[in-house]
Amino acid sequence: MLQSAKIIGAGLATIGLAGAGVGIGTVFAALVNSTARNPSIKAQLFSYTILGFALTEAIGLFALMMAFLLLYS
Amino acid sequence: MLQSAKIIGAGLATIGLAGAGVGIGTVFAALVNSTARNPSIKAQLFSYTILGFALTEAIGLFALMMAFLLLYS
Amino acid sequence: MLQSAKIIGAGLATIGLAGAGVGIGTVFAALVNSTARNPSIKAQLFSYTILGFALTEAIGLFALMMAFLLLYS
Amino acid sequence: MTTFINTVFINNPLEQFEIKEFFYMGGPLLGAKFSLTNIGLYLIIVTILVLGMSYLSLNNNKVVPSRWSIVQESLFGSILNMIKSTIGGKGEAYLPFLYTIFLYVLLSNLIGLVPYSFTPSSHFVFGIGFSVAILIGVTILGFQTHALKFFGLFVPAGTPLGLVPVLVMIETISYLARALSLGLRLTANMIGGHVLLKIFSTFTWKAVIGGPILLLISIIPFAFIIAFTGLEIAIAFIQAYVFTMLTASYLNDAINLH
Asked: Which sequence ranges are marked TM in the entry (chains A, B, C) (predicted)?
């Protein structure tokens, strides 16, 4: 019984990844838009995008870590 | 009982893919907009879009991976 | 029975992280867009972004704290 | 079809992170307990790699740089630029510290991609140990340079008076959450990436030995694994860069107080 609750809990926690997917899409959309607008500072824009991607990915993976935590302990 | 919980858990985990769907749509929308605005750097924009698509897809596959993990172990 | 409810509750609470993911993505998208539009005040824009990121992350971590609260007490 | 699929997982995909002891010395008599585990071994290997790389690029102090020293100098230069843009002049004192962090985290991420190897940075002890130590160090530095003015960090400039108590509470929580989020970000990325690789490689292996039709179908997951390994290498670089970048911005908070 407890094991089945763990599985359902882990399944629920994985839904948190949806937000990270939307966030990363938005960051790269902004990169593409702003590179078209101002291609001269491509490098600086790309470094900000990579930073934004990593921070958004972190939140998504917090949810995944929570799912693993629920599943295995 | 456990098998039914696994199936429900996998079903819930797959909802995480919704975010990746929205994200990829946003990235390609930005590609279309920015190509109209500045067609000269189409190649650079396309390479950024493919990178954005790959990274957003990775998040979606994390959710799918979690669903498989719940379903089969 | 109670323990399984705790686990499912914690799983539900983790879904709150989705919002933080979207929020951080939007903040960094704004940073990338605005740096392209006006690169001279990059430093000021970056410090506002870090502030916005910290506040959005705090909200996401409130959700995570709530999940831990449900799980362990 | 279903019987074929549910034999996919012979053992748990999380097994790759288990710590196995190689040999164990000492006992109750000696008191001191020494055991070399696989995470210990890989940390030693990464340290040897970092030192070896620096020694190689030393090029016994010839004026003309060898290829190795060019690699190290360009890496040094890029981190110096990053520090200059994040912290400004005063941050250059922390260049060796940040350079070592970047190289160490990068090599421990990359060493995990070698087949049959172990990723030290996929353990929470590695990530969170680093980030808590960094945060304590930065806080001590902040107090040392700014004494009591350091608390000004928790009140962003230009907030209306009424909002201050709420904002201070949120800012302190997010400041303390930095200790966990910095390390957890690195570790969670590594764990998630490797578990995904493990699952897909088992899936493809089952498809390959599953029969001629499945052999043809297995090209798709195999191509995906190649693409994902490339992505995993990129993520190893990105995570190391972001870890250093955030450490630099935390140092900036301690030195320049916003």
From this structure: 45-72
Cβ–Cβ gap D196/B73 under 8 Å: no
Chains touching chain B, criterion 3+ CB pairs below 8 Å? A, D
- What does the pLDDT profile of chain B (73 residues) look like in tens digits? 889 999 999 999 999 999 999 999 999 999 999 999 999 999 999 999 999 999 999 899 889 888 988 888 7
Whole-angstrom distance, CA of residue D104 vs CA of residue D53: 11
Residue D31 neighbours by CB distance under 10 Å: 7
Handedness of CA D14, D234, A53, B44 (dihedral sign): negative
pLDDT for D5 equals 45
- Distance from C-alpha of D98 to C-alpha of D252, rounded to nearest angstrom: 13
Quickly count helices (H) and strands (E) in chain B: 3, 0
Q: What separation in angstroms does the CA of D257 have from each of D85, D142, D150, D166, D253?
A: 16, 8, 7, 20, 5
Extract the runs of DSSP E, i.e. beta strands, from B21-70: none
Residue D94 CA to residue B4 CA, distance in Å, equals 55
Say whether pTM exceeds 0.90: no
Give A-chain residues touching C24 at CB under 8 angstroms: 23, 52, 55-56, 59
User: Using CA atoms, how far apart are residues D54 and D57, in angstroms rounded to an integer?
Assistant: 5
| ipTM of this predicted structure | 0.87
Cα D239 vs. chain centroid, distance in angstroms? Answer: 6
Specify the number of domains making up chain D: 1
Residue C41 in contact with partner chain D when CB distance is under 8 A: no
Q: Residue A6 in contact with residue A59, Cβ under 8 Å? A: no
Q: Which H or E run contains D125?
A: helix D124-146
Structural domain of D169: 2-256
**Alpha carbon of residue D201 to chain centroid:** 24
